[in-house]
């Protein structure tokens, strides 16, 4: 109990480990981890490439309650392999979402919280990771018909690659100032388009394009919060109480595609122009 109390006294959400983040959101005494580290379910592919695996493969899955509402919390550890997803971690996420779907079909209104700290597919397990992310995306779309799927991007690793698409499918997206959201990461863009297009070492520029505040001002996420555990918990509770949104962002593709057609690609767009681009009527 002392350890839990000490955890709750920490206000920064970003400074917590993935497991602590899941614990911090759930009602005290309700945390129950599925496929925990003691089961030693590790990636069979990392060892073959002389990479030390992790006993939970960098993904924590826990069932519990938030104000007595049944939830599954899926938390990705960004410090392990950049939060990348391979066969085991991806299967844990997809399986947890599919179990939540089964819960709802049995009359148990289980929602999902995705704590996203990930660069996307693990390069060492590329095809397996891609297949897993496809299953994750499919499960999100099915689960959100029953209960909210809430995505949280609160740390500096951010959310990129195929998991950024998964984030866009969530019922609600919450970001902090420290978080970033984009399809391609800064180093990938710089490598493919050149330093003049995107300087991956220019942190103020990067956050001005993909950071939480910018994404919120551009209406690409639903809530912008400080790096504060209680503020995040209050926002999650509010979305659980609100229930399913009337309109999903992913169903408004005509609006976003029409906006993108107005972008002049002959010069680099500014953060203010991006905000103006998306702040129109739907």
TrEMBL record:
GO function terms (MF aspect): acetyl-CoA carboxylase activity; carboxy-lyase activity; metal ion binding; transferase activity
Q: Does the keyword Transferase apply?
A: yes
For this protein, the record's PROSITE patterns field holds:
COA_CT_NTER
Q: Where is the signal peptide?
A: none
Q: Which InterPro entries match?
A: AcCoA_carboxyl_beta, ClpP/crotonase-like_dom_sf, COA_CT_N, Malonate_beta
Organism domain of life: Bacteria
The top EC class is: transferase
Keywords, comma-separated and alphabetical: Metal-binding, Transferase
Q: What is the E.C. number? A: 2.1.3.10
Per UniProt, residues of the CoA carboxyltransferase N-terminal domain are 1-194
**Keyword set includes Oxidoreductase:** no
Q: What Gene Ontology biological process does one annotation of this record name?
A: carbohydrate metabolic process
Report the PANTHER family cross-referenced here.
ACETYL-COENZYME A CARBOXYLASE CARBOXYL TRANSFERASE SUBUNIT BETA, CHLOROPLASTIC, MALONATE DECARBOXYLASE BETA SUBUNIT
Q: What name has this protein been given in UniProt?
A: Malonyl-S-ACP:biotin-protein carboxyltransferase MADC
Q: Which organism is it from?
A: Acinetobacter stercoris
Q: Which gene encodes it?
A: madC
